[in-house]
Amino acid sequence: MSSRLRRMRRNESLRSLVRETHVQSSDLIYPIFVREGQTEAEPILSMPGQSRLPVEALADAAKEIEDLGIGAVLLFGLPSRKDDSATSAYDPNGVVQRAIKAIKKSTPNLVVMTDVCVCAYMSHGHCGVLQGHEIDNDATLPLLARMALSHAHAGADVVAPSSMMDAQVGAIRTSLDLEGLGNIAVMAYSAKFSSAFYGPFREAADSAPSFGDRASYQHDYANARHARRELLQDIEEGADILMVKPGLAYLDIVLRARELSDLPIAAYAVSGEYSMIKAAAERGWLDEKKIVLETLTAFRRAGADLVITYHAKEAAAWLNTN
Q1: Measured between alpha carbons, how far is 101 from 322 in angstroms, rounded to an integer?
Q2: pTM of the predicted model as reported, rounded to 2 decimal places
Q3: In this structure, is the dihedral angle defined by the CA atoms of residues 229, 307, 121 and 48, taken in order, positive or negative?
Q4: In the beta sheet, which residues pair with residue 187?
Q5: Catalytic: which of 82, 104, 192, 278?
Q6: β-strand partners of 160
Q7: 82, 245, 278, 313: which one is catalytic?
Q8: DSSP character at residue 262
Q9: Is 192 a catalytic residue?
Q10: Quick one: CA dihedral 126, 128, 131, 134, positive or negative?
Q11: Taking the C-alpha atoms of 255, 27, 34 and 317 in order, what is their torsion angle to the nearest 10 degrees?
Q12: What's the rounded Cα separation, in Å, for the pair 77 and 80?
């Protein structure tokens, strides 16, 4: 028998020699929740090991992340004040704006990405301007652009619109270019699905809608072709990075995105994925290190260049010692 596929699986040295897919700490993006008006880290009960941080803690946090070789951070803000116009979202002295400056002061070379959505800043918790109980898509676009501009002026390297409003990427790209900020990149939440996997995030970001849900603007999880159309639209509007969210249950969408475009693809291993692994590991039902490294490899194997994950710090430590 001339073909024996096990020959190259015989020991770890041979397996490593022909391994097709690799994960590095620089492929990872670490999400950070920053809360205004607090002085100490506040644990997130539904996400063991994660906390909402005060701005004052970000310098040390950023240095740790940079030392681990993690590629970037993605900031989510929790303001002390919410209203029906999301005015805190674009406040030059807002929580995210101050967080960006704190990180850039301590670690100027660390890539800072910011989530651009108004749900955490709106009193009603939805991702856009309301007309009655409906989201006014076009009235929301200037608000998102203004928020992105404020992040860029504060020093963000990448802005990441996540509200799933039609034409949001184009509105932000145009505003950045007109403001002389054409070097700021846009990471588009292009294939963001309406998912139950976001459950713990709602607590972490204090962003649950006060009525209804987000199914009218996030993708139906049954639809792949519709997600393809959104990816194509964001490419046309000037996106620099395309994102698929959630990650593990949507590897088919990651693969479709990879086949569709040569742009960098990011996959978001969301809060529900993180918390399920943590809960099972705490009960001894699975090996956390092995399952995390396996799933990160699955994202990369499917075509993701970048993985946004709450496991980034642990994974980077494991990868750096392998």
Answers
A1: 34
A2: 0.94
A3: positive
A4: 241
A5: 192
A6: 115
A7: 245
A8: S
A9: yes
A10: negative
A11: 130
A12: 10
DSSP 115-167: EE-STTTBTT--SSEEETTEEEHHHHHHHHHHHHHHHHHHT-SEEEE-S--TT
Whether the CB-CB separation of 310 and 274 falls below 8 Å is answered with: yes
Query: Would you state the structure tokens that stand for residue 102, as one six-digit string?
Result: 């704190």
Return left, alpha or beta for 49; rule: phi > 0 is left, psi -120 to 50 is alpha, else beta: left
| Whole-Å CA distances, 172 to 55, 159, 239, 259 | 26, 9, 10, 26
Query: How far is it, in rounded angstroms, from Cα 141 to Cα 124?
Result: 18
In the DSSP assignment, the letter for residue 105 is: H
The reply to whether 278 belongs to the active site is no
Q: Which amino acid is at 166?
A: D
CATH number for the domain running over 22-321? 3.20.20.70
Q: Which two tokens stand for residue 280?
A: 């099972």
DSSP state of 193: B
pLDDT, tens only, 24-59: 999 999 999 999 988 999 999 999 999 999 999 999
Domain ranges (residues) in the chain:
22-321
Q: What is the pLDDT of residues 123-158, one digit of tens each?
A: 776 777 877 778 889 999 999 999 999 999 999 999
How far apart, in whole angstroms, are the C-alpha atoms of residue 230 and residue 233?
5
Cβ contact 130:84 at 8 Å: yes
Per-residue pLDDT reduced to its tens digit, 256-295: 999 999 999 999 999 999 999 999 999 999 999 999 999 9
Name the CA dihedral angle for 274, 277, 279, 284, rounded to a multiple of 10 degrees.
-160
Write down the residue that tokens 């996959």 correspond to: 267
Q: Distance between CA atoms of 214 and 23, rounded to whole angstroms?
A: 33
Nearest CA to 119 among 91, 82, 71? 82
